[in-house]
Design a protein that fits this description.
Chain A is α+β, with helices and mostly antiparallel strands and 448 residues long. Chain A is 41% helix and 21% strand. In chain B, helix 9 (276-293) packs across helix 15. Classes of the chains: A alpha+beta (448), B alpha+beta (437).
Chain lengths: 448, 437
């Protein structure tokens, strides 16, 4: 879309509310079905999410498994044939990828089909969508007792390249490095794609065994958002997955408590041939999705750095002209907060100083009426806009599942509307700077 | 209530209502029932490629610095007492803007307070306030934006490609300009560009969401029709004559990347028109490129199995009135072998002719993705304007896709892929060395 006037890379909201209209049902095969009827979309979203703990082993295997499974199925073992079949079905979209929420690893399978009402009526597309979802998850292309050996070999290489290519996106790289350093003694440091060193040992047979165990034992949630009523969705989900013998095992906590930051934050400076300095500051907030202060944490982040009216944008960019982007974002499950900004190499001390001053101002209650009210309006707007986005609705529900506590969008909106300045100050006082990471050029002063 | 002209698609089940105000502004709206979000964009036919122009009969040609359209976009938000973003934030609306090669757009989205935000949008875009101090202050911000792009290898690969493909056309220049060109921008030049390109007759307002289109027309008229905008400048955009040949076959740049990133493609010299013929070409090209290099194609799957591409590989086409190209991009450990194999694949594809089954299947795929896109208000708004400024109607996309024939796409394939017009841009792992041209 060319250049936008400003970019806030991680939104203040980031995905939070449980949409109140999700209807939930425990299905007999040990999976939960979540449906939301919405007739305004031209596509129906069908998805299944498998959850595990976050470890190097889980992350590496699950990431590779997702890549291998989307290559083909028992019915369509050749990738080209599988893709041609999807073209035939009006470009039905298929994805199999991994994500992490706190210290939980998620394998997310999604199928997007055109609403039959826009084609010939009936329910052919919807039925095909469900069977593709099942084939994708449960019926992979096999070779003997293993997954297709050529696919496993190719995807091992591609996974390694994908992990290494994070270097190419300097903001993402700086962000990941800050997390690795901040959480170096916690599972959260593990990348959602796992680790290069652990790829080699995986074989077609070992991955097939991993797959069988994942499908059998990982807790499973199925989501249907679109022009489908709950009873119909339950029938189709049972038809698709009812035959699988599942014995879900409970998973551990998604949010371990990290060590308290030392009074002097760690400083990590790395050098590379770059044009711009990439600054990421990592904080521990002490507040998570599962705590009662969560709406106040959203609010604090909004006042501090989530929006263009926030203190960071106003002071780092608009007043000091130091950056094109300067914003904060939160990880809701683990209760982490980050500030990131792209700055001149020489502006490091000035920028860190201004950023800390701004958080101090929040801690000290130096917040104007309009900063409070604009944040409130911004958060409420963001909650309401999720109703137009099936994927964010699903993401929000997942955050609730991972955190073991549900709150409806309406309840959250209510709670956000009641957050007071005192709440913001209390939450801000619990936020501690842990790690300052700076990616800079190879020349220049080395004391930073 | 204002009478609006209606364009309807039975296949999409959507309708666009259009009208033109007395001041010359075109207003259009698509009523999306049931959506919480409301989205409005006020756009002008002015982009980074419009650096040279002349007002017919009155003055000499004017040359302005690279990046000025984008700079103006940033500065229009400035008010005497701060930024217009503050007003949008007070209303709970999200505001932003964008600039590309041929268009600048100002937008907001909201759930509540739509009409006050709407009035604010129309008011601030039509009322510039530039000062020496504010112009200077913005330079530091834009310098960081330029540096951010310098660190993006994907951006650099595409930019190197455009610079190799075009010898003179300003599409080869950076949208944000260079650090030097931005430093030379003054308040006076901004006002001159504003007067030239921001007359309402050069602009279009588009609204999408659960809002009555007739009310959009009425309200826009109430906001603007009492104001004095003067007569529209008799504008002539000066574009240098672009030679048929490309500028360079290959460009390289070293950056801190994990493996080479390559962007390559073909210059299309059959340009100089817009409207329905351009729309047929764009949609025909979309079908053609899917057949040739999409995920279900023989070529894509062979390249993938041989390890020459990964899932980052993709293609794109861009067609404007006076330029057009088709390109491929992705990561590859062996970019030269990849380019060779794609060129061979294209020859084989052209020689083999279009398979009617593949054509029908691909057409279905393209229609499905069009339907899917209409679930996104941002997609609708951005593409409505892009199409509209090329005298095309987005709402007719499915109908056009249904009417395109295999022969038409075969014709496009036969004309486009001239090895003489192939440019390759590679970002290689290494440190900042620049070659080529």
């Amino acid at each position: 879309m060319g250049h936008t006037r400003y970019a806030i890379s991680r939104s203040a909201w980031g995905g939070v509310a449980l949409e109140e209209v999700f209807q939930v049902e425990r299905l007999p095969m040990g999976a939960n079905l979540h449906t939301m009827r919405a007739t305004k979309f031209k596509t129906n979203l069908l998805a299944a999410v498998l959850q595990s703990d976050l470890s190097v082993d889980e992350a590496t295997h699950n990431a590779l498994l997702g890549q291998v499974l989307r290559r083909g199925t028992r019915r369509w073992p050749e990738t080209a044939d599988f893709m041609r079949n999807l073209d035939d079905l009006y470009g039905t979209s298929v994805s199999a990828d991994v994500a992490k929420k706190g210290e939980r690893h998620l394998l997310v399978f999604a199928v997007g089909v055109v609403n039959d009402a826009y084609l010939d009526g009936g329910d052919a597309m919807l039925r095909r969508g469900f069977s593709i979802l099942r084939e994708l998850i449960c019926e992979p292309a096999m070779e003997g007792s293993g997954l297709r050996a050529d696919y496993v070999a190719q995807e091992k290489t591609n996974l390694r390249r994908r992990i290494e290519s994070i270097l190419d996106d300097k903001q993402a790289y700086a962000f990941r490095r800050c997390n690795e350093e901040m959480c170096r003694t916690e599972p959260y440091a593990v990348s959602k794609l796992g680790r290069v060193e652990d790829i080699d040992a995986i074989t077609p047979d070992s991955l097939a065994q991993w797959h069988a165990r994942a499908v059998r034992e990982y807790p499973m949630d199925i989501f249907v958002v679109g022009d489908v009523d709950h009873t119909r969705a339950a029938g189709l989900a049972l038809e698709a997955f009812g035959g699988s013998a599942r014995r879900p095992r409970p998973v551990g906590t998604a949010s371990t408590r990290g060590p308290a930051p030392s009074s002097k934050p760690r400083r990590i400076v790395e050098r590379m041939p770059v044009s711009q300095g990439h600054l990421v500051m990592g904080y521990r907030t002490g507040t998570t999705f599962a705590t009662s202060d969560f709406p106040a944490l959203l609010f604090t982040n909004g006042v501090f750095g989530g929006y263009t009216h926030s203190k960071l944008f106003q002071n780092v960019r608009e007043r000091a002209s130091l950056a094109y982007f300067a914003s904060s974002g939160i990880e809701q499950t683990k209760g982490l907060m980050w500030v990131n900004a792209g700055i001149d190499f020489d502006a490091f001390d000035t920028a860190v100083g201004i950023i800390e001053e701004q958080l101090d101002a929040v801690r000290g209650g130096a917040i104007t009426e309009s900063e409070m009210e604009n944040t409130r309006r911004g958060l409420i707007r963001d909650i309401e806009m999720m109703r137009d986005q099936p994927s964010s609705l699903m993401d929000l529900a997942l955050t609730g599942i991972v955190n073991g506590c549900s709150i409806t969008a309406e309840q959250l909106k209510q709670r956000v509307s009641q957050v007071s300045l005192e709440d913001v100050v209390r939450v801000a006082r619990g936020i501690q700077l842990d790690t300052v990471y700076f990616l800079r050029n190879e020349e220049g002063a080395r004391h930073a | 209530m204002r009478e609006m002209e209606l364009d309807r698609s039975e296949l999409l089940r959507e309708e666009v209502a259009r009208t033109r105000l007395n001041c010359g502004l075109e207003v259009a709206a698509l009523h999306k029932r049931g959506y919480a979000k409301k989205y409005a964009v006020l756009a002008t036919r002015y982009g980074s490629a419009d650096t040279r122009f002349r007002i017919r009969g009155t003055a000499d040609p004017v040359s302005t610095p690279e990046g000025i359209a984008h700079f103006l976009e940033h500065k229009l938000f400035e008010e005497e007492n701060g930024s217009i973003d503050d007003i949008f934030a007070d209303l709970g609306a999200y505001s932003n803007a964008f600039t590309n090669h041929t268009m600048t757009g100002y937008l907001f989205s909201c759930v509540d307070n739509f009409w006050p935000a709407f009035d604010t949008l129309l008011d601030f875009v039509m009322r510039p306030h530039f000062s020496d101090e504010n112009v200077e202050k913005e330079k530091g911000i834009i310098e960081q934006e330029i540096r951010m792009n310098e660190d993006s290898p994907d951006w650099q690969a595409v930019n190197g490609f455009l610079k190799a493909l075009y010898q003179r056309h300003p599409v080869r220049e950076e949208i944000a300009g260079t650090i030097d060109s931005v430093r030379s921008i003054t308040k006076e030049t901004l006002y001159e560009c504003y007067r030239t390109f921001y007359h309402p007759s050069n602009m279009t307002l588009f609204v999408v969401g659960d809002v009555s289109p007739a009310q959009v027309g009425d309200r826009a008229s109430a906001c603007l029709d009492g104001r004095e905008f003067g007569t529209a400048p008799n504008l002539e955009r000066l574009r240098p004559e672009e030679p048929r040949e490309i500028g360079a076959h290959r460009a390289e740049k070293g950056m801190a990347v994990s493996e080479p990133i390559v962007c390559f493609g073909y210059k299309d010299n059959r340009v100089g028109y817009d409207g329905p013929p351009l729309m047929r070409k764009m949609i025909g090209m979309e079908i053609l490129m899917h057949m040739l290099a999409g995920r279900s194609s023989a070529l894509y799957n062979a390249l993938y199995a041989d390890g020459l591409i990964d899932s980052s590989f993709d293609w794109d086409c861009d067609y404007e009135r006076d330029y057009g190209f088709a390109m491929f991009e992705g990561r590859s450990e062996n970019p030269d072998r990849l380019v060779e194999r794609v060129a061979e694949g294209i020859s084989a594809f052209v020689a083999g002719g279009i398979d009617p089954d593949q054509f029908e299947r691909t057409r279905r795929r393209v229609i499905g993705s069009m339907l899917r896109s209409f679930d996104s208000l941002e997609f609708i708004a951005y593409n409505f304007l892009t199409y509209h400024f090329r005298d095309m109607r987005l709402i007719e996309c499915v109908e056009v896709a249904k009417s395109i024939t295999a022969e038409e796409t075969a014709g496009m394939a036969g004309e486009l892929f001239d090895p003489e017009l192939l440019a390759v841009s590679v970002v290689l792992p290494g440190s900042g060395l620049e070659q080529g041209e």
